[in-house]
Amino acid sequence: MAKHSSIPKGTRDFLPQESLRRAYIFSTIRSVFRLYGYQPIETPAMENLSTLLGKYGEEGDKLLFRILNSGNFLSGVPADALHQGEATALASKICEKGLRYDLTVPFARFVVQHLNEITFPFKRYQIQPVWRADRPQKGRYREFFQCDADVIGSDSLLNEAEMVQIIDDVFSSLGIRVRIILNNRKILAGIAEVLGIAGKLIPFTIAIDKIEKAGIDSVHTELLALGVPETALERLTGVLNPASQGVQVPSVIEQMIADSEIGRKGIIEMTEILKYLSALPLKSEVVINPSLARGLNYYTGTIIEVKAADVQIGSICGGGRYDDLTRIFGLPGVSGVGVSFGAERIYDVLAELKAFPAAMEGSTKVLFINFGRAEAMRCLALMQQLRAKGISTELYPDNAKIKKQFSYADARQIPLVAIIGEEELSSGKVILKNMVSGEQVVAEQAQLADLIV
Question: Is 443 helix (H, G, I), strand (E, B) or coil?
Answer without folding.
Answer: strand
